[in-house]
Design brief:
Layout (H helix, E strand, L loop, with lengths): L7 E10 L3 E7 L12 E4 L2 E9 L2 E7 H6 L10 E5 L19 E10 L4 E6 L13 E4 L2 E8 L3 E6 L1 H6 L10 E6 L1 H20 L2
Antiparallel strand pairs: 1-2, 1-6, 2-5, 3-4, 3-6, 4-5, 7-8, 7-12, 8-11, 9-10, 9-12, 10-11
Amino acid sequence: MFTGIVEELGHVTAVETLGDACRFRLRGPVVTDGAKHGDSIAVNGVCLTVVDHEGDEFTADVMAETLKRSSLGALTVGSRVNLERPTAVGDRLGGHIVQGHVDGTGQVLQRTPSEHWEIVKISLPADLSRYVVEKGSITVDGISLTVVDAGPDYFTVSLIPTTLDLTTLGHKQPGDPVNLEVDVIAKYVERMLGDRLSSEGTATR
C-alpha cells in the first residue's frame, strides 16, 4: 500500500522491449536505498516489482496489461517519473490509501497559473467519473491530490509549489497522459450498495 506522497523525482535510464512486455531501468537514489529483489516501488502510481538493483538504479518488468491500462508505455529514456516506496506499518498516512493499481488514464487539458499555486484541469474517463467528487481524493501519476472541481468528463486539482517542483506534474503539458487511480473506498462502497440493492430488489419480487 502507498500513500501518494512522492518520495523523489527519478528518471528512466533504459527501456528494453520484451515482446508483449517491457523492462525499465530507473534511477532513484532514495527509493533504491536498501531495495532488494521482489520489493515494490510505485512508478507514476503503478506498483512495480524490483527485478534487479544496482547502485541507485533498479529494473522492473511491465506486462502488456499494465502497458495498456497505464501511461508507462509512453516512457522513454530520460522520462521523469514519480517514485514512492510502500508505506511501513505504523507510519503516518500523509495522503490517502493508494494501491498502485491504475484505473485508467487521463490527459492534462489546461494549466492556469496563480501567484502561489497552479490549477490543472485533467480529462476523466466516463467510467471513472462517478468515483470523483469535489474535495475527494484522487491519485494522479502516483500523487495524492484533492479534487477542486469535478465535471462529467474532467476534474481539476490545485498544485502547491512543492508539488510542482518535486513531481512530474510540474512538467506535464496539455496533451500529456497521466495515470489515474480513484479512491478505493468509493469502489468498495459502490460494490456493497450494489449487492444490497440487488438483493433487496430480488426479495421484493
